[in-house]
Design goal:
It contains 8 helices and 16 strands. By secondary structure, the chain is of the alpha/beta class. The protein folds into 2 domains: 93 residues, Translation factors (Elongation Factor Tu (Ef-tu), domain 3, Beta Barrel), CATH 2.40.30.10; 153 residues, Rossmann fold (3-Layer(aba) Sandwich).
Length: 260
C-alpha cells in the first residue's frame, strides 16, 4: 500500500453553505499518490477526538500539492475542525483504499448524493480533463438550492450537469435515481456508472444498472477506526460470500458484489 503520514498546513477552511465546509491542505507527498475514489485519515491535534477520521479525497492539485476535503459539520469532531484557521497543521494519513477504475470506452455517468458528492469531484476531473474519452454526465442529488455550490467544482468537466433537489427548489424534484432513466435514454453511449452517497440511493441505482447491463461501481461509507484493515470495524459480507474490508478492499466496489 502506497501511503504515508504527512503534516499538512491549512490553506483555507471555508464555508460552502450553512453546514458544509471545504478544507484545503498542503500535503504534496500524499497528493502525488492520490487517485480518484481514495480517502485519507486525518487527525486534528488541537481537537478532543482521539481517533483519526476518514474523509474522501474531493480534489487535488498535483502542481501545488494541495488536497481538498469537503465535510458536513455534523458532530463534535467536524465542528472543531471547522474552527481551524489558515496556517494550522493537520496530520494526514493516506492516500488509502482502492479508488474507481477507468476504461477508455463509452461515457460515464457520475452520481453523487449529499456530501457523498465530494469524491465525484476528482473523478470528474480525471474523466473530463485527463482522459481522452467523452466527458461524463454528472447527476447530483442535494437537499435544496442552497447546495448548488457543487457546480463550481464539477461543471467544467461535465458534458451535462443535472441536479435533483428534495424540495424541488432547483432542477428536478425528487431523488437522484428518478433522473437516471431519462439520462440513459438521452445518452445511450453511457457504459459506466460510478456512485457515491447514501446507501439507499446507491442500492437503487446499482440495481437499475445491473438490470440494464451497465457496469457500476459504488463507493461505500463505513465507520473506520484504523483505515488500513487491521481493526475489522468496517467489514461486510459480499454477495460472493467473502467478507470485505471497506477501508482496505474498497471503499470502491463492483455494485454486483455489494447489491447484486
Amino acid at each position: 500500500m502506497n501511503k504515508l503520514v504527512e503534516n499538512g498546513k491549512i490553506i483555507y477552511n471555508k464555508p460552502l453553505s450553512d453546514d458544509v465546509n471545504a478544507l484545503c491542505l498542503a500535503v504534496p507527498q500524499v497528493v502525488a499518490l492520490a487517485q480518484p475514489g481514495q480517502f485519507v485519515m486525518i487527525k486534528n491535534e488541537q481537537g478532543s477526538t482521539y481517533l483519526r477520521r476518514p474523509f474522501g479525497v474531493a480534489d487535488v492539485n498535483k502542481e501545488t500539492g494541495q488536497l481538498v476535503l469537503i465535510y458536513r459539520k455534523a458532530g463534535k469532531g467536524t465542528q472543531e475542525l471547522s474552527q481551524l484557521d489558515s496556517g494550522a497543521v493537520i496530520s494526514v494519513e493516506g492516500p488509502l483504499g482502492k479508488g474507481f477504475s477507468f476504461k477508455n470506452e463509452g461515457r460515464t455517468l457520475l452520481i453523487g448524493g449529499g456530501v457523498g458528492i465530494a469524491p465525484i469531484i476528482y473523478t470528474a476531473r480525471h474523466l473530463g480533463a485527463e482522459m481522452t474519452g467523452p466527458k461524463p454526465v454528472i447527476l447530483l442529488g442535494v437537499r435544496n438550492h442552497k447546495e448548488l455550490f457543487w457546480s463550481d467544482f464539477v461543471e467544467e468537466f461535465s458534458e451535462k450537469l443535472v441536479y435533483t433537489t428534495d424540495d424541488g427548489s432547483y432542477g428536478r424534484k425528487g431523488f437522484a435515481i428518478d433522473a437516471v432513466p431519462d439520462i440513459l435514454n438521452k445518452y445511450p453511449d453511457i457504459r459506466h456508472i460510478k456512485v457515491c452517497g447514501p446507501t439507499i440511493m446507491m442500492k437503487g441505482i446499482a440495481e437499475l444498472a445491473i438490470k440494464q447491463g451497465i457496469e457500476c461501481e459504488v463507493s461505500l461509507e463505513k465507520r473506520m477506526a484504523c483505515g488500513i484493515g487491521v481493526c475489522l470495524g468496517c467489514t461486510f459480507a459480499g454477495k460472493s460470500g467473502k467478507r470485505w474490508k471497506v477501508c482496505a478492499d474498497g471503499p470502491v466496489f463492483d455494485a454486483v458484489e455489494v447489491f447484486g
